[in-house]
Amino acid sequence: MKELFGQRLREQRQNQGLTMEQLAEKANLSTNFIGAIERGLKEPSLSTLISILNALDIPADVLLRDYVGTASHVTDEEICKRLEGLTPIQKKAALDLLDTYIANLPYLTNEE
């Protein structure tokens, strides 16, 4: 589990174009500790996790989604990436589908 968390951390750091040194500085941590987390050798404490999340400006579920069963597995970033390559007509169709889905949520989840 530590390895997967470390991989997610590395992905997020690299997606933002940060070096380990830059992330460490932003999170007030040592570069060695960031490296150990990314390699799955160390687990951050809660306060350290919060520092990392704030430094990366990301929600917790981005790094913790594999650990928490109730966390959303779909992030805004993932939705945006999927929509980027669509034509305007396809985007409108996707929006219409989403509106229809949202309008039918109580029916789909048996909530009334």
From TrEMBL:
Keywords: DNA-binding
Pfam families with a match to the protein in the record: HTH_3
GO cellular component: cytosol
SUPFAM superfamilies: lambda repressor-like DNA-binding domains (SSF47413)
Family matches, as InterPro entries: Cro/C1-type_HTH, Lambda_DNA-bd_dom_sf, TransReg_Diox_bact_type
GO MF annotation terms: DNA binding; DNA-binding transcription factor activity
Species the sequence originates in: Faecalibacterium prausnitzii
Official protein name in the record: XRE family transcriptional regulator
Span of domain HTH cro/C1-type: 9-63
Gene3D superfamilies with a match to the protein in the record: lambda repressor-like DNA-binding domains
